[in-house]
Specification:
This protein is of the alpha+beta class. The chain contains 24 helices and ten strands.
Length: about 850
């Protein structure tokens, strides 16, 4: 069959009018068949082309997606595809999350690094002022400068926007990974597997564990038979033996010797601070010495390390289950102390303490086996039936241990609630907490095995095993709190301070221990280390309020700097009050004013320094400050008025500390001028708290404002038989003889006048210290009585009260006489009978 070119050539020749050669009929038939074949071939080609076009149209979107996927092969896109892939393991997701956290931190650091340059350009743009309005032109130099700065601003914003985009994308990917991991954890927790009641579970577990043991034993044999590994093991043998001996000695001999030495020193010492140190050493020796010994032993006896060189240091790489055993032993001896009742932290007798220590050790062994089982399952990839067979006995034993722990807690609570124990609010709260813990332990002890028997082994294990760890954490909190509280009290409190005189030391120690235990409690109940790191990052990153970023680091810096400034201020005040100001000529009030003023200034400077060190820009909260000023003007005007009045009192000093004043019906000494009020101590030892505004705006009698000099006035009444000049001489001599009476001005005796029965005199004398006016008046009065009696001078008192009583008696007698007269004449009297009207007195 000719091709298309040959057919086109033949058609061209025929159309050109050239004579066709004569062709026999067989040839014509053959030519017709050839033309029919060519038409069929063309139809087939057309159908194939149409089919290809339809396939291209149908496959176009998929090809486009593949092309786009190949085009977007960035790291972020690859991470998105891995996150979306359900086959990506949780371990791979955690690795990707760590990388994303690093990228996010780098992006955040880049933003902080680029922000100063961006702020500088923004400040330069703002210095040019607002852009001109529409239709208004500005000078060419300004316009060119504005264009240049806008270009610099755009250049500075480009990397900042890229860093922000990278930060947000990494943050979104981290959030998606966290969501997937939590969803997988929840699904695994609620998954149902074979029940431990099925016999096939135990047979399958036995076969699988046996096969794994054989495989692992053969692998170890092959490694040990390798000449290279044997040569390495022999070369390391001396070091391994030395480590084993050192670890054994540290675990057994050194610990025992150290405990004996500590006990002897503790019994021999009598100092509370030395006892605190020794108790701390005793508790730490129980924990640190076994850890060091176990680290040395496992550095020598690691099977893989002995037969194969890994190239990594293994010193003090202790397995987790060994650490659990060491912690359980430390907790049992520290909390219950079966051998030494004086060190026991719970109110139990010796028998109960031994049972409690044994229970803690058993629970520690259960948790150690659980930790080792999780390691073995992850390493050997056991089936679900084998996992059920491994974990169900641990769950059951843990539930039994929780039930016994609940009984022990009830016994401790009963001892603590005894009549000999205090019932303070803190004690009542602790008893309620113990009751709740015991009830929850009983519920978990019943629910955990039931869930495991129903096939929900992960849920049952999640209830029982973390509950055991939580009880251990609570016990460790008690031990650590007791250790730190006793140490802090012995070193910070007074030497002979009682339990009630320790101040806030127990509260501060308890708060710190409780805050430290919160992350550990979260880890026990399923939180990941990445969750804690994320929470810590959020606290460090903080939130933005009023244009300011408030974070944990900012708050800590603010508090630390302010506390340091306040402490320095207090030190300066103490030095001024105790050493500097007493050597000056200032009085007590002036010294107090200086000390208080230094305090105000120091606190203001400390606040400004704290704000500056924390990096807070107070200009961003101008609107908030304006709103607060309005609130202060309406709601806090009295407080502000008293504060300003206190400053006026300290500056003008119309009233100072130690003055004797009379105000508002109260009389007494000024004991302190504070920010809001002034304290006045009356003569009967009562305290009057007076607002400062009353002292500034009201009328105050200050008897010692300009000094302690004061005048005493003593009135005296004598009979008319006395000689006035003699009385004057006696009074003057008595006043001049008193040690508090001043010679200049000299005492004065005044003849004030005459009354009905007396001649009235008044002795006026000035005292050196008016604060002793009452005692001086009393002394002078005693001396006047003694001298007048010796000279035969008779006292006479004015009788105004007697005159009033006499008038009352005369009036009563007159009324009685009038009533009798009326009764005799028959006029109505007091009893209603008739009688004459009483006569009017002349």
């Amino acid at each position: 069959m000719p091709g298309p070119a040959e057919a086109r050539s033949a058609r061209a020749t025929g159309e050109g009018g050239a004579p066709f050669p004569s062709v026999p009929p067989r040839a014509l038939a053959s030519a017709g068949a050839h033309r029919a074949g060519r038409r069929a071939s063309g139809l087939a080609r057309a159908l194939a082309a149409l089919t290809l076009l339809v396939l291209i149209l149908l496959a176009g979107p998929g090809l486009a997606q593949n092309a786009a996927a190949e085009a977007d092969d960035s790291p972020a896109a690859r991470i998105d595809r891995l996150i979306a892939d359900p086959d990506t393991s949780t371990a791979e997701l955690e690795v990707m999350r760590d990388r994303l956290v690093t990228q996010r931190n780098d992006a955040l650091a880049a933003q902080k690094e680029l922000q100063p340059a961006l702020d500088e350009v923004n400040a330069r743009v703002a210095a040019l002022g607002e852009p001109p309005a529409e239709g208004v032109t500005e000078p060419p130099e300004t316009a060119a400068r504005r264009t240049e700065l806008n270009q610099q601003l755009a250049d500075a914003m480009a990397p900042m926007l890229a860093a922000k985009d990278e930060f947000e994308r990494a943050n979104a990917q981290i959030a998606e990974i966290d969501r997937i991991v939590r969803a997988r954890f929840s699904a695994e927790l609620m998954s149902r597997g074979p029940s431990p009641l099925m016999p096939t579970v135990w047979t399958t577990a036995a076969e699988e564990i046996g096969s794994k043991v054989v495989i692992y034993r053969e692998a170890l044999r092959d490694r040990f038979n390798d000449p290279v590994n044997r040569r390495i093991a022999l070369r390391r043998l001396p070091v391994s033996l030395a480590l084993v001996l050192a670890g054994t000695a540290a675990t057994l001999l050194v610990r025992r010797w150290l405990m004996r030495w500590v006990d002897e020193r503790l019994l021999a010492t009598a100092s509370g601070r030395a006892a605190a140190w020794i108790v701390a050493l005793r508790n730490l020796s129980r924990l640190i010495v076994p850890v060091v010994g176990a680290g040395l032993i496992f550095a020598a006896l690691d099977p893989e390390g002995l037969v194969a060189h890994t190239g990594e240091g293994r010193l003090f790489e202790i397995p987790g289950f060994i650490l659990i055993l060491i912690g359980a032993s430390w907790l049992a001896t520290s909390l219950f102390s079966p051998r030494h009742e004086s060190y026991r932290l719970v109110p139990l007798d010796n028998r109960e303490a031994r049972r409690g220590a044994s229970l803690v050790l058993v629970l520690g062994c259960i948790m150690a086996l659980a930790r080792y089982a999780m390691w073995a399952i992850a390493r050997f990839d056991f089936s679900q039936a084998t996992q059920t067979a491994i974990f169900f006995p641990l769950v059951l034993l843990g539930a039994l241990g929780l039930w016994r722990a609940a009984r022990l807690i009830d016994r401790i609570r009963a001892r603590l609630a005894g009549p000999e124990q205090g019932q303070s609010p803190t004690a009542v709260l602790g008893l309620r907490f113990l009751r709740v813990v015991a009830r929850v332990a009983r519920v978990v002890a019943v629910a955990g095995p039931l869930l495991a028997l129903a096939g929900y082994l992960p849920a049952g294990a999640f209830l029982v095993l973390p509950s055991v760890m939580t009880l251990g954490l609570f016990g460790a909190i008690v031990v650590v709190y007791d250790l730190l509280e006793k140490t802090a009290v012995n070193f910070l409190a007074a030497p002979n301070a009682s339990q009630d005189d320790t101040g806030l030391i127990p509260v501060v120690v308890g708060t710190l221990v409780g805050i430290t235990a919160i992350p550990l409690l979260a880890l026990i109940w399923g939180a990941r280390r990445t969750d804690l790191a994320e929470t810590w990052g959020m606290l460090n990153e903080g939130v933005t309020l009023g244009g300011m970023r408030i974070s944990l680091s900012v708050i800590l810096t603010l508090v630390a700097v302010f506390a340091l400034g306040a402490a320095l201020t207090r030190i300066v005040q103490t030095v001024l009050r105790g050493s500097v100001l007493p050597r000056t000529k200032l009085d007590a009030g002036g010294r107090n004013a200086v000390v208080v003023g230094i305090g105000y200034l120091g606190f203001v400077v400390a606040a400004l320094a704290a704000v500056s060190a924390a990096g807070l820009d107070l200009s961003n909260i101008a609107i908030v400050a304006g709103a607060l000023s309005v609130g202060i003007g309406f709601g806090l005007q009295n407080l502000v008025s008293n504060f300003v009045s206190g400053i006026i009192l300290l500056v003008e000093r119309p009233v100072k500390e130690g003055d004797w004043i009379e105000v508002g019906g109260f009389s007494g000494y000024v004991r302190g001028i504070n920010v809001r009020s002034t304290e006045i101590q009356t003569f009967d030892r009562a305290s009057v708290i007076l607002p400062n505004s009353d002292l500034v705006a009201g009328t105050v009698l200050n008897r010692t404002h300009s000094g302690t000099y004061g005048r005493v006035q003593i009135p005296i009444g004598v009979s008319y038989e006395a000689e006035p000049r003699q009385v004057e001489a006696i009074l003057r001599s008595i006043a001049e003889a008193h040690p508090l009476v001043l010679e200049d001005p000299a005492p004065v005796v005044l003849f004030m006048g005459f009354s009905l029965n007396t001649m009235d005199f008044e002795l006026r004398c000035w005292l050196r210290d008016v604060n002793f006016s009452l005692s001086a008046r009393s002394d002078i009065n005693f001396e006047i009585v003694s001298r007048f009696r010796a000279e035969g001078i008779e006292f006479r008192l004015p009788p105004p009260v007697q005159h009033v009583h006499q008038l009352d008696e005369v009036s009563a007698a007159f009324l009685v006489a009038a009533q009798k007269s009326a009764e005799e004449e028959g006029e109505p009297g007091s009893d209603g009978t008739a009688g004459p009207p009483p006569a009017k007195p002349a």
